[in-house]
Design goal:
Elements (H helix, E strand, L loop, with lengths): L1 E6 L7 H15 L3 E6 L11 H5 L12 H9 L2 E8 L6 H10 L6 E2 L8 E2 L6 E8 L3 H7 L3 H14 L4 E7 L7 H16 L2
Length: about 200
């Protein structure tokens, strides 16, 4: 399977980078082809331009500025996202990647009758999210309502691909995690990747 693995963390020695490396190794050991996309290392510009926004309902929508990323997304059969949650959300660079790359004509089409958008990412069968939070699980899930899971599963996943298999593995209370707990989580990442 062709997997697009997207890392969104500015530090090459971060735990998120270790999670991404672990995921990549496990996927490759399982015979998958991995396209590694490190948004910070590739200096992805997350800012939706004025021209992109002005042409949002134009047909065809102009994706020339992000054509390389669009091609990588359209070539993938699975999408693995690796990122920390900051302020109960994804890093801005990842949100900007969605804003610019998951564009009309790529991830969805506008329903001209005024209904829901029409999914276009039929090539993506799996969306796996590997994330960390500094907060304990109960704050993220009970107090905040697990906003990242809702956004990715119900919003991006459901609106952009039909029949998508969604899974999310989160390490909560990251700021107080022991080295043993961090190592156990990486083992969980390996097992999660083996399920693809």
């Amino acid at each position: 399977m062709r997997v697009l693995l997207v890392l969104a963390h500015p530090l090459a020695d971060s735990y998120a980078a270790a999670v991404a490396r672990t995921a990549r190794a496990a996927l490759e050991a399982g015979g998958h082809s991995v396209d590694w996309l490190d948004l910070y290392a590739e200096d992805f510009d997350p800012r939706l331009t004025a021209a992109e926004r002005a042409g949002y309902f134009a047909e065809p929508y102009d994706t020339a500025a992000v054509a390389g990323d669009v091609a990588r997304l359209q070539a993938a059969e699975a999408l693995v996202l690796v990122f920390p949650q900051w302020w109960f959300n994804m890093p801005a660079i990842l949100k900007g990647w969605f804003d610019r790359v998951f564009a009309p004509g790529v991830a969805f089409a506008h329903d001209r009758a005024g209904g829901r958008i029409v999914p276009r990412l039929e090539n993506i069968r799996h969306l796996v999210v590997l994330t960390t939070t500094g907060s304990p699980w109960w704050i993220v899930k009970l107090w905040m309502g697990d906003p990242v899971r809702r956004l990715l599963r119900r919003g991006i996943g459901a609106f952009c691909a039909r029949g998508l298999k969604f899974r999310m593995l989160a390490l909560h209370d990251m700021d107080r995690a022991t080295p043993n707990r961090l190592a156990r989580h990486l083992a969980c990442v390996e097992r999660e990747m083996a399920r693809l």
